[in-house]
Please model this.
Amino acid sequence: MNILIACPISKRAVEKLKQKHDVICAFNASEEQLISLVYDIEIIIFRNGIKISPKVIAAAPKLKFLIGASSGSYNLDIDYAKTRGLQLIHITNPGLKFFLN
Model:
């Protein structure tokens, strides 16, 4: 899978994901930077403070999952994500184990 990690997460998790997936790390990227990176992305991993706008989602036709890698609310238009049929998954760093196998 093609994964964009838009925020710092565990270095171990990043390395493990890179073993089996194509991973782009764009920590704290601007909206314009995210738009330029997401065309082939299937998963975006993000945390609070990172805005995943409708423009970013619209620029990612292959996007399937939005993974919120923390608890709490996100800068995300959930209604728009739902209209695209995207799954929003809330996990903590230990929860990334699901995607590491």
Q: What stands out?
A: The mean pLDDT is 87. The domain at 2-100 is CATH 3.40.50.720 (Rossmann fold). The beta strands are 2-5, 22-25, 43-46, 51-52, 65-68, 75-76, 87-90. The two ends are 13 Å apart (CA to CA).
